[in-house]
Amino acid sequence: MTDILMPALSPTMEEGTLAKWHVKVGDTVSAGDVIAEIETDKATMEVEAVDEGVVEELLVEAGAEGVKVNAPIARLAGGEAPAKAAPEPKASDTEEAESSGDPEKKPPADAKAEQPTGDGPAAIRPADPPADPEIPEDAKLVKTTVRDALRDAMAEEMRRDEAVFLMGEEVAQYQGAYKVSRGLLDEFGERRVIDTPITEYGFAGLGVGAAMAGLKPIVEFMTWNFAMQAIDHIVNSAAKTHYMSGGQVTTPVVFRGPNGAASRVAAQHSQDYAAWYAHIPGLKVIAPYDAADAKGLLKAAIRDPNPVVFLEHEMLYGQEFDVPEVDDYVLPIGKAKVRRTGADVTITAYSRMVGLALKAAEELAGEGIEAEVVDLRTLRPLDHETVVESVRKTHRLVTVEEGWGPMGVGAEIIARVIEHAFDYLDAPPARVCQEDVPLPYAANLEALSLPSVDKIVKAAKAVSYRS
Amino acid sequence: MARAKSAAKAGDQPAGTAGDLGKDALLGFYRNMLLIRRFEERAGQLYGMGLIGGFCHLYIGQEAIAVGVQSIQEEGDQVITAYRDHGHMLACGMDPNEVMAELTGRAGGSSKGKGGSMHMFSREAEFYGGHGIVGASAPLGTGLALANRYRDNGKVTFTYFGDGAANQGQVYESFNMAALWKLPVVYVIENNQYAMGTSLERSSSETHMHKRGASFRIPGEEVDGMDVLAVRDAAKRAAAHARSGEGPFILEMKTYRYRGHSMSDPAKYRTREEVDEVRKTRDPIEHLREILEKEGLADEAALKAIDADVKKIVAEAAEFARTSPEPEPAELYTEVYVEAAQ
After folding, report:
1. What ipTM does the predicted assembly reach?
2. A376 to chain B, closest Cα gap in Å
3. How do residues B234-266 score in pLDDT, each as one tens digit?
4. Predicted TM-score (pTM) of this structure
5. For residues A285, A289, A293 and A298, what is the CA-based torsion angle, rounded to 10 degrees?
6. What is the distance between the alpha carbons of residues B230 and B251, in angstroms, rounded to a whole number?
7. What is the DSSP secondary structure assignment for residue B184, as one 8-state letter?
8. Contacts A196 to B, Cβ<8 Å
């Protein structure tokens, strides 16, 4: 004997109307037969039999309203009893639900898991990253452009690991739209340096699929502006798969390319995506400033078993910096760097904004304000400890970002400083960011819109109560 | 050679042939299709009891496709699909207990309860999901095929999606690259005639899905997706094509889902008579049953034994899914990132 229960037809249904019976007592039913129609406030649905047997009793009359989910509505006799009867709710549960008429009574819901108390956004964070590797005193420093440092990082990792390859628009024969991949096709051949059609959504998905199979793709976007076509695969396919698979499948892919405003390319080609991707659990987000960091962090990103968003800057590609000539220069992901020490105000920045912050610090020094410049380098996981430590010393904070302020990187840093060093602040923090408008084309308006050395100096003075 | 003629076919697709398949293989197909059918019916029941939440897309009616295609899968070949995925996982050999427990969101589920109906994976079975975004399986599957080509390992990726997904732009981006680079991928379009509630005719300017690769020079074939032997024959041809370095192949499987798009879909966009007609005349399991009986490969007792065996497996899966504990609260924070082992 098997009870047929009132089914839930949607995630939110608690009761419904049994509109019509399609069977009567004595009928033989088999799995798949329609036995009744049920109405909810949203729809009418047919109920199919799951078991076979003869209808022994209809427990609810046609037209009955407010029939609770999981209440028995009919009884089947005979049939070939399966090895185990269909799971039934405990009789006591059902009776209680019926007699009490308690609308809150839910089907066999186990006690809700106790909510663990996470430590806010910082809870999911790998163990403290190690410090930067020691560079030997006698290591030669070589002037290198950011462009070449990125290329060197890819070339070294491709030599080291056969699973690493590069794909993107114009990366091979054209030698890179911004010449970042110059020479790679010659050294590694077309199997490992792959020109794609202009189909960001598609090739980002191919990259994630290849990563699922264990390869380590570097997917270059000509600029991050075009990656909006691909953001579904970056977020839904790359960032979430390890979690959704219970740890079975990894997606070790690096998405990289220039991010932020170049020069006079206007609104659709000038956007900082740091806050967008740093919002997503499962991604790591890196935005280096100088050539040494670009090299050391890109090598770390390629080796990382997680999906990494690597935000470069077109305006930095041609800039030269010292890069230590050491074997295998790999930097820790998730570690900020204090680029200038100072006791009066903390300025945080990443990517191209670090250069502006350092210039602003020089100007401020001329006016007797010693700024400490923290280069965030990694935005997820965010090394707020280094920022907090600095603010505990300076008591003042200015955040700088090229993107828009609302819901941005600066907003997050200020929130964390308030969480961890509220009592140390001597002034409300200030944000320097792009004005809250699409980036205009006209040279003067563009300059007005973007952060500048002058804006940073002004903000630092304001939080220092100096004019 | 036993030649099986489909009882009632939808179009002009050739009927499948038993070919050199022995009795055991045919009985295996019957068993696997029945397992999917009974498993899905039970999943629907558990959903009705509130034990399964959220979205739940049942594979009932389409069983011949996963079973037929995956019967020719060689070791190392990969499978990837969208969210109507329970049947593929069972056909891949994943443990019914783990699949059902994932549906109920329990610790014993294949993703430890963190993925649910639409997001399950098995490295062991080379099953790469389980993807909830319509069309996403196309580039991801093409990427798996890119990895096969990169490694030159002779493996093929079976990339499934539906007639609804076939209108997504990313599918054509994938077709283009797969053909351009001659990637070893077989695209299996499960054409069940309805993209949720919108019929093929109302959503697609070209309703013959196997022709959708024409502008990329990808060959395609229309297949009776209700005939497991026809499915198998076509999959063999397609896989041989992809494996030989000729590039992708499209199989359009003409099929039908008996249930709504998901559990909460009353399916009012089609008539009960339409559904009944397919069930009566084209049911994939009944079709194979007729062949087995006609060819004298199985008597009623043998089929009943399979029935009983399948029922037992499904009952056990349901019991496991009901009694497996919910995940530990600490599980919330695990596996967001891979712990770096460098």
Report:
1. 0.92
2. 20
3. 999 999 999 999 999 999 999 999 999 998 888
4. 0.87
5. 40
6. 11
7. -
8. 177
